[in-house]
Design a protein that fits this description.
Rossmann fold; elongated; alpha+beta; binds magnesium ion; six-stranded antiparallel barrel; binds adenosine-5'-triphosphate; eleven-stranded mixed β-sheet; 4 domains
């Protein structure tokens, strides 16, 4: 027997997916291809020659068996998972002829791997365009590169899961760096912690030319893009159930009226709904609500009991116009012949307080004061102006779409939406609105103009979470989950793919995870997460879950149609890495940290001004001072020059 096809075992039983083989060598160590090998080691590969094919199997377990007769040496039995078939120089996933008892089991050879890896190269072929990309090296034999088929990987949603620190963000950055090499690739990334600017900027912190970075200054998401339910969640005060119904009634009526005016200008009167993303004025909503909260009527009439006598005699339509456009005073005191508004008087206060709190919070400016905030945004300052007509303001949506889909002045392949400055309670709404905007855009796009896009959701368990029973009962809304589930179910038809990244896959929406046809599963210790993944991935992989806790940072299994078999892969570090969240406590505690000016920090805190932080977040170089070796003399520099 040649060493290259070393027989190590014989098939003992074949039951469904589980094949067992009795080890037939003298010991558990053998020499194979010039290297000592330990037999039965989890994750190693075997080959079963049957007729003119070789079945490739994977060791999923090994056990000791009592010898048949007393005094004989103990026996060892390996459990195998059959992965695919080599026929001449071609590897196919799956098995069509099964082994039988007594068939020999060999260790897989280099030639076997050459065929397996060569098959992907042949499939990728020499087409007019690249069909695959390289993600890293094969963990069992680093001489082989792991290539992933692009069409299969991106057309049916992707999940990247693993413990914190297992290398998900680096893997994501590596994949995106690979695909941004394609001239026309289109990726929109929801970057929850502002990690990715560092992976897509140069040494000086300037963002790459083919990347659009929407940081705190540039991201504008006008409130009029929100659907009714999202606005209701933001504005209605649910603390006092007595007032909720009336607040909702007011919000609906007011929006209908305010949007109606724009709809008329846009010739949409019969088509618009509370969800149509057209301009309406939040300032007017506020004034209207303040007025209605104070509103009193003249008894048995439609006349408002306004304090100015001249206004009291206006006809009801004129009075209505007045109260929706400016603050008015009502008669104070319990004058006879006057009654407070039965639905709204004193009942809208909770809503007004909520609105005011948010309007006073700078972090909401990008949404609630979009025109003011746009002055500082390079992309929106010409599109959103106080002088803009409702029609012009409604059209700001096309700017947003152009920006997100890389169709700005120069073509960009990746848009990073840095959400680190977005208040936590509206992350859900922001992700929902942007996802919906992109999905609807492709939905309405004529087929021949539809350009495929990949939406990347970092830390997805935070906003694409699984509904647990208690939440169902309390009717907790999750707008992002709802729309991303829609993308997961229908996105494929419209060229919208999702990539979800999470350290807690068991907390992710089942609908989304079960639609992920490709996965990169990295180190994963939590049994709940392992079981959840085992449930959704193919049987082929279920038995390999036991190996997940032992993976190194950056090591993971690539699963799905884009690879020929589950590929244990050493993912290559991206050329530039995302800003890692790992802080070296011991280094800082030993060497110290530059002391900040507490008063200065307080100033930023009070003003909610994250300018300083964002400059650092966007800068790999500056961020290094916190996570890696400090660069002597390196000064954090702003990414974009301050504007007036
Ligand atoms: N492919 C790789 N090769 C070598 N080391 C890696 C690789 N990927 C990640 N690492 C190491 O692991 C560290 C953590 O990686 P990363 O930030 O990608 O983890 P993560 O899974 O995204 O963590 P978190 O859940 O906290 O965001 C990196 O700083 C790096 O040192
Ligand atoms: Mg990460």
């Amino acid at each position: 027997m040649s060493n290259a096809t070393l027989k190590v075992a014989e098939v003992l039983s074949v039951e469904g997916n589980d094949t067992r083989a009795l080890i037939t060598t003298d010991g558990m160590m053998v020499e194979h291809e010039g290297r000592p090998r330990r037999l039965g080691q989890l994750g190693t590969y075997v080959a079963l020659p049957i007729d003119d094919v070789r079945l490739i199997g994977y060791v999923t377990g090994v056990a000791r068996r009592d010898p048949a007769s007393a005094g004989a040496p103990p026996q060892h039995v390996m459990s195998l998972q059959l992965l695919g078939t080599i026929r001449e120089d071609w590897f196919d996933r799956g098995v069509d002829s099964y082994p039988t008892v007594g068939d020999p089991v060999h260790l897989a050879t280099r030639e076997d791997f050459q065929v397996i890896f060569g098959t992907i190269d042949q499939i990728a072929g020499t087409a007019r365009y690249p069909r695959s990309f390289r993600i890293g090296r094969f963990a069992m034999d680093p001489d082989f590169d792991v290539h992933v088929l692009g069409k299969e990987f991106f057309s049916k949603h992707i999940a990247i899961v693993g413990n914190s620190g297992s290398g998900k963000s680096c893997t994501t950055a590596k994949i995106i760096q690979e695909i941004t090499e394609l001239d026309q690739s289109q990726i929109i990334m929801f970057d929850l912690h502002g990690e990715y600017a560092a992976a897509f900027s140069d040494e000086d912190g300037s963002i790459d030319a083919n990347v659009t970075y929407l940081g705190e200054r540039d991201l504008i998401l006008p409130y009029w893009l929100l659907q009714y339910q999202e606005l209701e969640t933001m504005l209605v005060d649910h603390a006092n159930p007595k007032y909720v119904t009336n607040q909702i009634a007011f919000l609906k009526t007011a929006l209908q009226e305010l949007k109606g005016e724009t709809a008329e200008a846009l010739d949409l009167t019969s088509e618009f709904s509370l969800d149509t993303p057209i301009y309406w004025s939040l300032d007017r909503l506020k004034v209207y609500a303040e007025n209605m909260n104070d509103a009193r009527y003249v008894l048995n009439s439609d006349q408002l009991a306004l304090s100015k006598l001249a206004l009291r005699s206006l006809d009801p339509a004129e009075q209505h116009e007045l109260i929706t456009t400016q603050r008015v005073q009502f008669n104070k005191g319990a004058a006879e012949g006057e009654v407070p508004h039965p639905q709204y008087y004193g009942q809208l206060q909770g809503m007004l307080t909520r609105l005011e709190t948010r309007l006073n919070d700078r972090r909401y400016d990008f949404m609630l004061r979009p025109i003011r905030h746009a002055k500082g945004s390079r992309y929106f300052k010409d599109a959103l102006k106080f002088s803009g007509t409702p029609t012009e303001l409604s059209q700001a949506m096309s700017h947003l779409i152009r920006l997100l889909t890389g169709q700005w002045e120069t073509r960009s392949n990746l848009t990073i939406v840095d959400m680190s400055g977005v208040p936590y309670e509206i992350v859900d709404i922001v992700v929902a609105v942007l996802t919906r905007t992109l999905f609807e855009y492709n939905f309405w796009c004529p087929l021949e103009q539809r350009h495929p896009m990949l939406l990347v959701y970092e830390e997805a368990h935070n906003y694409i979470s699984r509904l647990v029973k208690e939440q169902r009962r309390t009717d907790q809304r999750s707008f992002a989950r709802h729309i991303v589930e829609r993308v997961a179910k229908e996105g494929r038809k419209y060229g919208v793919s999702a990539m979800v990244i999470s350290q807690r896959p068991s907390e992710l929406s089942e609908t989304v995870v079960s639609q992920c046809n490709s996965m990169v599963v990295m180190r994963l210790n939590n049994p709940e997460d392992q079981n959840y993944i085992a449930k959704v991935v193919s049987d082929q992989f279920g038995s390999q879950m036991a190996m997940l806790p032992s993976l190194r940072p950056g090591e993971g299994f690539v699963l799905g149609d884009a690879v020929l078999m589950p590929m244990r892969t050493l993912v290559e570090l991206p050329a530039r890495t995302p800003r890692s969240a790992d802080v070296d406590f011991f280094k800082h505690w030993s060497l110290g940290t530059e002391t900040g000016d507490i008063d200065d920090i307080l100033q930023h805190w009070w003003r909610q001004d994250r300018g300083l932080l964002n400059a650092q977040l966007a800068l790999g170089a500056a961020a290094k001072g916190w996570t890696d070796e400090p660069e002597p003399g390196a000064e954090p520099a702003g990414v974009f020059p301050e504007e007036d």
